[in-house]
Design a protein that fits this description.
six-stranded antiparallel β-sheet, 17 strands, about 450 residues, six-stranded mixed β-sheet, alpha/beta, about 40% helix
């Protein structure tokens, strides 16, 4: 702990030795480079400038820092929605510039005072459902399509005369490159669906809901034929011993379910030639900080922590699905609430402020690789569990303490909601667990195959 605080202190001292202009000039230089490592350096510099601007109340510097964070974050595929929203509040007219492209279809812009508010947005199979607090009128929805022939990108845009109750956010869906919803201006909520292939999109209004139907061409996910299997993998079965984790439907315990899935995953990976270790081989309590320390000792190539999700009893029948998380000081309420549950067993070593500060300064170099690993694991599970029609909760970022300190790509997998009757019943079924473990193993192989060079 003393070494960590000392290192953090030295980083801060080193940064303050440079002037704002020097850091900005250095960050802009890094941005011009095509390498991922320099892009990360630029991203970190812009974030440091952002912190300085807040302390000095320098809005001009704050704008430059936010602009840099957004541009570098997009190149690295990091969720920068909170910074993008803040940037739009500083200078709304610069938040979105449509590419110079051929307009396929465009509906006349409308000027209506925004009185409606978006309450929620969620996926239900191939439908994206936006729920508002009031009944929608047809003239509140402005839909048009853009095609960028240079980048070969289709962009489907919904401008809705409403405002958001939550911050801007990205939504994930297998088969679609990017989905983003944000407050375009004070009266307009903008939803953008971007894809390299043409999509079939239709929509209809139902009272207080806007239903958007999206059809994608789904291809069968297969395991690469040849991969480098001279890799070391550490599997972390969450909780254990005195810490049962979540206790859900029919008193099923998280620590038991995730341990059995971890054992199945280890068996499959070992049969394929990988060297696999587990942070616990029985029902015992292991401190969160010791789990990644163990992975570092083993010089692991990847670290995977397996958990099961949970919600309060009043929502138990509604909430289900699988998700993958990678480490980030995310400020989304959902990520923080889930992280709080997983972190709760072992928070004595560092308070929340110290943890988030540590995350901001020391983990950005692994974010991109961890994000890619999370995407491959999510795709692997969805492909393997296709016949069960499980809900795709997506790939997200969050401040999970169990991933802090890992010197390799690290991901936390939420295998389902132990509180949901149907999903919990599946999770205690050995065949379902083996099928899920197979999907995770296929995702790991796909990650190694894609990262081989």
């Amino acid at each position: 702990m003393f070494r960590l605080i000392t290192l953090l202190f030295l980083v801060v001292i080193a940064l303050h030795a440079l002037s704002d202009n020097e850091i900005l000039k250095r960050a802009n230089g890094f941005m011009k480079s095509g390498t991922k490592s320099n892009q990360f350096r630029a991203y970190n510099d812009y974030k440091n400038l952002y912190l300085r601007s807040i302390m000095s109340e320098d809005n001009k510097l704050r704008f430059k820092a936010l602009d840099g964070i957004v541009k570098s974050g997009r190149k690295l595929h990091i969720d920068i929605s909170q910074y993008s929203q803040e940037l739009s509040n500083l200078k709304p007219k610069t938040t979105y510039k449509a590419p110079k492209s051929k307009v396929i279809k465009k509906v006349k812009n409308l000027k209506i005072k925004s009185t409606h508010k978006l309450k929620s947005i969620r996926w239900r199979n191939d439908r994206l459902i936006l729920s508002f607090d009031k009944k929608l009128r047809s003239n509140q929805i402005n839909y048009f399509t853009l095609y960028d022939r240079f980048k070969k990108k289709y962009r489907y845009v919904f401008d809705i005369h409403a405002s958001m109750l939550t911050s801007s956010q990205g939504l994930r869906k297998h088969g679609i490159n990017r989905i983003k919803i944000a407050q375009y201006n004070t009266n307009t909520l903008r939803l953008v669906i971007e894809n390299s292939k043409k999509l079939k999109i239709s929509f209809k209004k139902e009272s207080m809901k806007l239903l958007i139907y999206i059809k994608t061409s789904s291809k069968k996910i297969t395991t690469p034929k040849r991969v480098d299997r001279q890799k070391i993998i550490v599997i972390d079965a969450g909780h254990g011993g005195k810490d049962p984790g979540a206790v859900g439907y029919k008193r099923y315990r998280e620590k038991i379910i995730v341990f059995k899935i971890s054992q199945e995953l280890k068996k499959i990976l070992a049969s394929r030639g990988y060297k696999v270790y587990m942070t616990r081989n029985r029902d015992k309590f292991v401190k969160l900080s010791k789990r990644t320390k163990y992975a570092n000792t083993k010089k692991a190539d990847i670290f995977i922590s397996i958990h099961a999700n949970a919600v309060p009893k009043r929502n138990a029948h509604k909430v289900h699905g699988i998700e993958c998380y990678f480490l980030s000081p995310s400020k989304s309420s959902r990520a923080e609430s889930i992280a709080a549950k997983e972190n709760s067993a072992d928070l004595s070593e560092m308070n929340r402020y110290g943890k988030n500060t540590f995350l901001k300064f020391l983990n950005h170099h692994k974010i991109l690789a961890s994000n890619k690993l999370a995407i491959d694991l999510q795709r692997g599970m969805l492909g393997s569990l296709k016949k069960y029609k499980v809900k795709d909760g997506g790939v997200r970022e969050g401040p999970f303490w169990v991933l802090v300190g890992a010197q390799m790509p690290a991901v936390l997998v939420e295998v389902g909601f132990i509180t949901h009757p149907k999903e919990a019943t599946r999770l205690v079924n050995s065949k379902y667990r083996r099928t899920m473990a197979l999907g995770l193993a296929n995702g790991i192989e796909r990650y190694f195959y894609n990262s081989r060079n």
